[in-house]
Write the structure tokens for this entry.
Amino acid sequence: MFLKKIKKKYVYIICIALLAASLFKAFDLSQKQEPSSKAAIGGDFILTNQLGETVSLDQIKGKHTVLFFGFTSCPMICPTSLNNISQAYEKLSEDQQEALNVVFITVDPERDTVEVMADYLESFSAPIIGLTGSEDDIAEVISGYRIYAQKAPEGEYSYTMNHSTIVYILDKKAEFLDHFAYNLSVEDIYNKLIEFL
């Protein structure tokens, strides 16, 4: 009877020790694991620029990139954003400008043809890369970058586009780095860009 009590006592102690060891290991692992610094935003694409040339994600790597999704018929948000980005770009040094891409991807490929994109982007001082493509190609890019874009009827024969207005900053590997609101001031955009350039 006495031996049985001792055995039970040791079994109890061993169980407690094993439980403590497993908890310590779990805690230790949780301390060592670092959350991913890269958000699940982005992905490869093959689209067409305003010169009719094919552009892939690989071709914008090697520089930081300001990336904005919009459409040329947008009455206020898109031109405001691109104008502010352009003015911030102009404030950068020549070396900083050389280290930066500015990319505008349409969410309205039905209307934003190569020619339309070319005419539209002439209005801005920065050398913006305008990208369009088939509806399927654009839908894939929109999905990869977690952009919302939806047609909204305007009258019987026309429509506008409701869409996300966030502006992305990508690093030299074309991976998500930061973002800012479309209506951020020129000075604030400039200050944000020089953090990375």
About this structure: The helical segments are 2-32, 77-91, 94-98, 114-121, 135-144, 186-194. The longest strand covers residues 64-70. DSSP finds six helices and nine strands in the chain. Residues 46-194 form a domain with the Glutaredoxin fold (CATH 3.40.30.10).
